[in-house]
Amino acid sequence: MNEQKDTQSIEDIYADAAHWHVNTGGETIHAKRVKGRFRTLKWYAGILWLLFFIAPYARWQGQQAILFDIPHRQFHLFAMTIWPQDIWMLSLVLILLAMTLFGVTAVAGRVWCGYFCFQTVWTDWFTWLEDRIEGNPIQRRKLDAAPWHGRKIRLKLFKHSLWLLISILTGVTFAAYFTDVYQLWIGYLTFEVPLVAWVVLAAFIFGTYVFAGFMREQVCFWLCPYARIQGVMVDKDTILPTYDVNRGEPRGKTKGRGSTSGERGDCVDCHLCVGVCPTGVDIREGMQEGCITCGMCIDACDTVMEKVGNPKGLIRYMSEKEISGEKLPPLYKRPRVIVYSMIFLMSVTGILYCLTHIPPVELSVVHERQPLFIHMSDGGIQNKYTFKAVNKMPEDIRFRLSVRGLPGLKLSASTGDMVVLKSGKAIPFHVFLRARPEQLQQENTPIYFQLRGIDKPEIHLEYKSVFIGPK
Ligand code: SF4
Ligand code: SF4
Question: Are 350 and 368 found together in one domain?
């Protein structure tokens, strides 16, 4: 990785300081890269995102393992198939994701923004390439300001080509979650995909290229709603990258390692924390909307503290209470964290239960209302029912239909007494029940329809309904 080799002296850092200034929106942020714990963590988070590119190629029993099959209205996840009837589970998944976000933010601020958000991660990849191709931030600024010449054109062309390549890969990968990835590649390469696939690709190329390549931190500042709502999720116990003002102030320049001054605090006013900030924030001015809590300023300041012989941690993860000398309460004593965790656990339990209890066949039976029953010419009473059955299994299933609950009931169905449910299809059909008036003891008699698999007797469904007769 192209983080700056830690060979700079404090004098070199001071010499660079003129280039680091707070983001006022007037120019592109070119953040310096320094090594450190949080930088490494950020790389690991970025590597996790590589799964996004790999996952569509995973196969399971001959088909794509993760597939949103919109034409057939199915979502395949390895051995599981989720149908539109089970889509309510999505609400549990959304609650789960929201609680994870709220809980993590309550504990440690915008961890999502700093490490996992696709905008942050893609921007990090794009700027890493920029660093490799055009040089460090100071060289990049010089290159930007220089008139166009052969080298500048070559470097810019190379960089933009790689950015476009990532953008194209991002677009194709996204589309690949909705159709077979290999067919999709062939379709794109032979220009034989439907219009919608081109629209998705174009939107993703444009979005990735512009957002990660040009807008970068401006997306976090101006477009992302999360920056605005996070204020309601953090409290005085939330730990955030914080400048230890008690220890750092009054800030002042140092003459080097071991240099002391009775009046000066530990901040040597080198501006490196500003120089590494991907959003151009000066953390020393307190918590700000632009801070995505990425911890890069912690790594930078630790490097400086090492060089000048001071203890690390002048900038560190710390809560508002800790700054004012109070103790951080344990997580299990924080009501906000407890509530988020409980909802999180309930959502996980609900999702696990649902996933393990998805019925192979979904059945609904509606009793005809107009009329509730009819008198037949032979004196019998007939009720009519509309069945809707969805076969969620990968193969067709034959069922035998019967009814219990009222002795002597005669059943006839528009399909005969054998029902064939096609895989993945919702089949509506009508069922008629007939009874003799003398069999009816009451106006409404509970009855139970039964569907039993002919080839798969283990699939057995029962649906409670009612037989209605005269008063
Ligand atoms: S907080 Fe640390 S990195 Fe920032 S100016 Fe002070 S010493 Fe330098
Ligand atoms: S202030 Fe520090 S933690 Fe916040 S965004 Fe800048 S570098 Fe990251």
Answer: no
Q: 78 Cβ partners below 8 Å, 6+ apart?
A: 60, 65, 66
What is the residue with the minimal CA distance to atom 1 of ligand 1? 267
Q: Which residue has the tokens 């953008």?
A: 167
Segment 87-102, tens digit of pLDDT: 788 889 999 999 999 9
pLDDT tens by residue, 174-232: 999 999 999 999 999 999 999 999 999 999 999 999 999 999 988 888 888 887 787 78
Determine the structural domain holding residue 383 and report its residue range.
361-468
Pair (285, 378) in one structural domain: no
Stated pTM of the model: 0.81
**Closest listed ligand to the CA of 39:** 2
Residues 6+ apart with CB under 8 A from 264: 250, 251, 252, 254
The CA 299 to ligand 1 mean position distance, Å, reads 10
Ligand 2 binding site (Cβ under 6 Å of any ligand atom): 241, 276-277, 279, 281, 283, 291-297
Please tell me whether residues 117 and 136 are part of one structural domain: yes
Residues 319 and 433 in one domain: no
